[in-house]
Amino acid sequence: MKKITSCICMMVLAVMALASTAQAGERAGAFSISPFVGGYVFDDNDQAWFRQNRPLGGLRLGYDFTDHFAAELVGTYMKGEYKATEHNVGVYSYRLDLLYNILADSPIVPYLAFGGGGTTIRQRGPNSHDGTVDAGGGVKFFMTDDFALRADARHIVDFQSNHLSRDHARNWEYSLGLSWLFGGRERAAAPAKAAAAPAEQPAAVTPAPAPEPPLEVPAAEPMPGHYKYCITLQGEFDIDKAVIRPEYKDEIAQVGNFMKKYPTTTAVIEGHTDNVGSYNHNMDLSQRRAEAVVNYLVEQYGIERSRLSAKGYGFTRPIADNATDEGKQKNRRIEAVIDCAFDVQQVTPPERLCMSLVLDFDPGKAEVKPQYRNEIAKVADYMKRYNTTTAVIEGHTDNTGSPDQNMKLSQQRAQNVVNYLVDNFGIERSRLSAKGYGATRRISYNNTPEGRQKNRRINAVIDCVVTK
Hints:
Layout: H1 2-18, E1 30-41, E2 53-64, E3 69-81, E4 88-101, E5 108-122, E6 128-144, E7 147-159, E8 168-183, H2 189-194, E9 227-234, H3 249-261, E10 266-272, H4 279-301, E11 308-312, H5 325-331, E12 333-340, E13 352-357, H6 373-385, E14 390-396, H7 403-425, E15 432-436, H8 449-455, E16 457-463
Parallel strand pairs: 10-11, 14-15
Antiparallel strand pairs: 1-2, 1-8, 2-3, 3-4, 4-5, 5-6, 6-7, 7-8, 9-12, 9-13, 10-12, 13-16, 14-16
Helix pairs in contact: 3-4, 6-7
């Protein structure tokens, strides 16, 4: 046992030396490999011929079906020693365990285990084969997203004959090991690593431009000639559930009735959460809740499924501070982003409207040309008709020039559109604000003139005061 204890201590020190802050625990779809060492205590009544406490080693191969449920194939080996003769025999065990992870999204994951299998004792004569069942539990201490220190304990019932109630031994197994996870859903830390700035190159070297990452256009981004109505459905789900509460269904009725009235519309149902729990868990939860709303619209309002899509954003798009309960409540929301291809003046949006203004600026300039008066008039006319509305004018550029220059240019262009609305249409300045995004929110690739033209745009996001 001194060797076992020394090995365990060395393992703990090695893990602590490699430790860093873990983001989360188990994750669905991950495979795991878990070597371990420990001890085995034989029943001092029904297997009294063996020395009780023997060192063992083994390996577990696991798979996480969900964040909470997993299965493992377990194999162990030890040398059993007969007390009378001090003769050693090889003892092999093999079993299948089912695990339930109690706090799956925590760096410390306690779990329960239950399973069954068999034990083979290799002797000079015929080998002995016993059936076993086991129950117990353990805990994993995640040092990184993919690496954990693990402690286990099992109560193992060894059936030594067909007389299950008579000839059985009650043994114990305890172990300490390591666990590596592979695959499964990505962690929140992955985008941060991808965003790390490359090392500055010497002035004489001109590195080839890196390929642009895949596009993920926000659902609320309008296309020219279309408008986006954003209806925020405030309502709570039960903790860790995606079942729509009855009192929440009147909120969804706004979307169902709107889309029935205007059959050419389509919608993206967005799910959002607060920041309680892991990134992966919240992404999955927000997706399931968005899909639940889509299914409800199809089943209860007869909306064609081809007109609807669901997108879960987890806690990546908060609209309030998660440091307070009130902020968390605002972030737990569903948003219906409805695409409309008809005249916006004929419809009163329930909450928020986003329209794209087709304006062309001279390269590096921010002056608004007179020929775009009618385009800007769409925003002015709407804000005059609904005089409780406010608007954010968003400026966007392509990636030509430096990031700082593009950010300043987009801010100035947005500000000039605000000034144009004030000076030419009499909209109160207190109802308007300007925000420049530079090239950070592209809707097309910048490797073609057409793509860059699409990215050079102005959006007007209009918030409407709703009377309920």
